[in-house]
Amino acid sequence: MHDEHPQPETFQPSINTLLKKPSVTIYLDGLMVLCYDKDQKRLQAGIHTDASFHAMTITIRERGQSKDLQSMCLEHKQIKEIAPFFLYVEKKEGSRTPNGSATLHKLDDPRYRQSFANVLDFQSESFHKRDRLKIKPNKLSPLNILNGEFYSATLGTAKRMNMECDPNPLNLGLVATRVAGDITHTSGNLILRSKDPKAKPLFRLPLSEEKHYEVTIVNEPTGATEVDADHIHGHSGDCAPHNGHPRTNHFNVYYEALVLRDGAVRYAVEIEEEPHSTHLETDPTVNVLPFDPPCELVRVSGIRQLP
After folding, report:
1. Are 306 and 137 in contact, with CB atoms under 8 Å apart?
2. pTM to 2 decimals?
3. Minimal CB count within 10 Å: which of 43, 133, 211, 218?
4. Is residue 7 part of a domain?
């Protein structure tokens, strides 16, 4: 695939997977809101497309390799035009019939490091449970994922504060900084398509029993220079420096898509990645530098699907 909008090099470090021998691991990161429909067994990632100078980048690599097999960058305007997206494994060659279902790993037990419960939840006691959060219609572009078991891939230490740089932040402990989903050892094609079933899929990845692929989907800033100069969302709680530079906190961007009662407190979260996370491979030949775009990924447990 031709990438018309080249992105900065962001090498995905290899991370311990949940399943021992998956055919595919899907990584989700950046400015997204996750919803889970337990009846349809579908994970829905709402792609926030109202953030300036952002784009959704998709890369496919064979695990342990740094070279992209396929890559693309979708501008937010294009995402709005062709969403919703569907990501699934075909039952058989060319059938376009989804096979399997999406599940969440140990959703109610955050004691497990890879539990999906460790993903920041806006409906939890630490945030807005009493506010009965809703999502504004047509604010988030849906990515419907129909296969895989989803879990917390990497963890960081998090602190919650208000937007005024709270001098006494609440320690949230370890939370997920990236979500992954493993698709069990299988054959067939992994398909990502737009809302038009007759359109050519954005990608069709043939799966095999011999290889393990990694698909990374990130909604992130398009370039460091542009972000530093123009990527502003008002006061965003940039209290702590990140790698020597102020870090843009995107929680106020999330609030643009949420319905809050009058006077509700808006929160920001700062996360410091664990430098020696047990999820990172110990192979010295593997690049283990954190892949951490300046956007957090959150979920809303009380909302089954995007409006």
Report:
1. no
2. 0.83
3. 211
4. no
